[in-house]
Amino acid sequence: MPSGGARARSGPAPDPNALRRDRKDDAGWTVLPAEGRKGKAPSFPLIDPSPRELQLWVALWKKPVALLWEKNQQELAVAFHVRTMVEAERADAQANLRTLVRQQAGELLLTIPAMYSARVRIAEDEVAVKRAEAASPVRVSARDRLKAVKGA
After folding, report:
1. Which helix (DSSP H) or strand (DSSP E) does residue 14 occupy?
2. Beta strand pairing status for 30-32 and 120-122?
3. Which helix (H) or strand (E) element contains residue 88?
4. What are the sequence ranges of the domains in the chain?
5. 3-9: long-range contacts (C-beta < 8 A, 24 or more apart)?
6. For 79, phi and psi rounded to 5 degrees?
7. What angle do CA 11, 15, 16 make, to 5 degrees?
């Protein structure tokens, strides 16, 4: 193995929330909608899909990153990932299958480090944030709680 020098994926992945990213660096990021891809999943391109394969296929095509797969015509790569994932789910699956699933997930931008390396991020769901803020209880200070006790 050669020593020194930069290697592919060396160092931390870019962080979209880093302070230094405030400059004009945001233009290099692809922002995907939090609600994901709308519409029906494409037809499964491999022969004889199992019910589990079809279930995973439909679920994956609802993810935000599916917009990029559709744009880049990666239906076959996603189908091979689904088929490999179903095989790797079996209790007697070999370790190399599980390693392949992890590698495929990275290539399809299904992991956070892979997304950050490709400068892809998912937009914050503002409705969900507001809903969570409204649902969270109002914090009362210890002093205010003690004021409710007579003689305090």
Report:
1. none
2. parallel
3. helix 75-89
4. 43-131
5. 9/117
6. -65, -40
7. 155
Beta bridge mates, 2: none
The Cα–Cα gap between 120 and 34 comes to: 12
Alpha helices in the chain (DSSP H): 51-60, 66-71, 75-89, 95-107, 112-117, 126-135, 142-147
Q: Which pTM was predicted?
A: 0.71
121: left (phi over 0), alpha (psi -120 to 50) or beta: beta
pLDDT at 130: 73
pLDDT in tens, the chain (152 residues): 566 666 666 777 767 666 565 555 556 889 999 999 999 999 999 999 999 999 999 999 999 999 999 999 999 999 999 999 999 999 999 999 999 999 999 999 999 999 999 999 999 877 766 777 777 666 777 776 666 566 65
**Which residue, among 86, 90, 91, has the nearest Cα to 104 in the 3D structure?**
86
Rounded CA-CA distance 149/82 in Å is: 60
Quote the pLDDT of residue 124: 84
Q: Which residues contact 130 (CB under 8 A, 6 or more apart)?
A: none
